[in-house]
Amino acid sequence: MMNTIDNTAQAPKCLGECKGTTEECFHSSKSIQHLHNNNKKWREDLVKRDASLFDRLSEGQHPPYLWIGCSDSRVPAEEITGLDPGEMFCHRNVANLVVTNDINVLSVVQYAVETLKVKDIIVCGHYGCGGVKAAMDNKCVGILDTWLRTVRDVHRNHKEELDAFPTDEARYRRTVELNVKQQCLNIFKMNVVQHRLGRPDQPNIHGLVYDIHTGGLKELKVDYCGYFTKLVGTDSLHAFPDGEETMSLAHRRRNVILDLAEGLEKEPGMIRTRYMARMLKRESDLFSPGEVDEAIETIKAQMKDPQSSFMNIKDLIAYFAPMKPKATASWEAVEAVKEIQTLAWFATCEYLILPLDSYQVPALPSSSFNIDNMGDDRGASKHDHSSCIDHDPHSLQHLFENNRKWRDDVLQRDPEFFERTAKAQSPRYLWIGCSDSRVPAEEITGLNPGEMFVHRNVANLVVSNDINSLSVVQFSVEKLKVKDIIVCGHYGCGGVTAALKNAQIGLLDNWLRNIRDVCRTHKDELSQYTTDEERERRLVELNIQEQCLNIFKINMVQRRLGLYGSPRIHGMVYDIRSGILKELEVDYHGYIAKHMGVFRLHSFRDGKLPTTKPEFQRNMILNLVDDHEEEPGTVSVRYISRMLKRESELFSEEEVDTAIKAIQGQAKTSGSPFVEVNALVSYFAGEEAKA
């Protein structure tokens, strides 16, 4: 039997063999020591306020909200909404996109809707979004180009409206809003969301925008009903067979029956009784087992052949969703119905204009559909929602109240905070963590808005062909030049547990296959643990280490690691039961030695990780002269001087000029247009260069 994994915090371990002085060491974990200190203080403060909080959180998560927001370090979801750990499942990516073929975000939505049964889905963008600006400026930004194509599609579809704005700033702000609305519609079209919209536990979809200049949140109007009318023949809005959003119990039942029977009719209008009984009983929100049995018994008794294995779909609908008796009505009745629906937006009313014609008035949309684009950044609504039915009209109201309180507190401590952070973001850290509502990144690390770029998905994965997470890594490494990348998992991860138990959970299966690969690789080690809990905890740690290595192998990370020594990559695990963060050791040196011939770890020329400034300077010089040698062993002075001066993190302009002058003086080649590469390397590296 192996020892049980220690639950207590461990001192951070250096992830590389440090050489040289402290200033020269580019791989010291001291860079995240204050995160551990912040975590300790945060944990102690929470325990003082609520001694049983972590015990409750460890029992499971039941968040009412799913947040899909931007990775921007200035938009920390839990802080700006004032929600506590356990209240909001979270996914963050560049420009808060929901792309229909992106398994990363689709897995998050599936887990949130089907497993957690969240009540509200929030898409939140923000003014000053770098992703939106890059898309509109149409700059070539590598992998991000493909990811931001979704924003460019929004720009194209609304080009006439956007061109009417007099300034670029106004166009950027409007595009942010239009992008939020489009992502709301993308969620609305998703199969898993459509399937729940006609049920009692349907999630409400809200579009929010955050103003980094003021710290305020506001809600946007999204026209879902208009979307029905326009695109019901284009997009498969299969939960609404008539192309109308009908929300009464009878219509919900009718929609579910039609949805379950679609494509499974043995004869026109006939469905197998055994299949339908089994499927309806699974829909416990709408049908009780007793009701289903009674309905089938009643329908069978009225059939010519009660012993038949099939039943008529129309008979089943008539039993569960009977139409109201027809009666005459006048235009006054029409106006009365409209008045009812003004007060009760989800009411579905049937009435007659002529004795023989029946009409359905589609229900008006929910409060989130009818919010105007208000100037009030607190999100206060102009409408009175007090009479709404089938929907909690105030489901986001306390978020706006929390946001106002948070904003006031920030301004009281630092009146210039929002004005300062709105200019640009310069985060030191990239956090790749789980979407779990109990692991709020900024809170458990004690970091302020602007200090940490964030990506969160199910089980904190970094998949080599996932453009979502790769776009986040590219933006943070190449654009923001973060110094530290943190992969943080947590014990009690539902994604890891599902992967280990090989549970069949639809689309999410494909996403979790990456964890099953970790299981396969470490099968012998995991089999030595005697309990499921021990295996799950160890798999959480192994998964974190594997994701660190996946980041380590990414081309853009490799290049910066070999040339600058950053970003440093840290693996961390969070214990929900105690609130403690601890760091895991990841053997990058061993990985290089073992897999140099398999993966192109091209930045490490000698098969080892550079750790001192001279080594990084040497690598940079050799990298720059690749394919630029004028003659064997020499390079153009003009070219190498210009390129080295651009690398201000490693070379100063004065250093470069002094080096070239000294080398040419020693070789008695002053004024020559060329300089020897080996001599240049030796000057900066302080050692003889290898051939």
From TrEMBL:
One of its GO terms (molecular function) is zinc ion binding. Gene3D superfamilies: Carbonic anhydrase. Pfam families: Pro_CA. It comes from the Eukaryota. Keywords: Lyase, Metal-binding, Zinc. It catalyses: hydrogencarbonate + H(+) = CO2 + H2O. CDD domains: beta_CA_cladeA (cd00883). The keyword Protease does not apply. GO terms for biological process: carbon utilization. SUPFAM superfamilies: beta-carbonic anhydrase, cab. Binds 1 zinc ion per subunit. Belongs to the beta-class carbonic anhydrase family. This is Carbonic anhydrase.
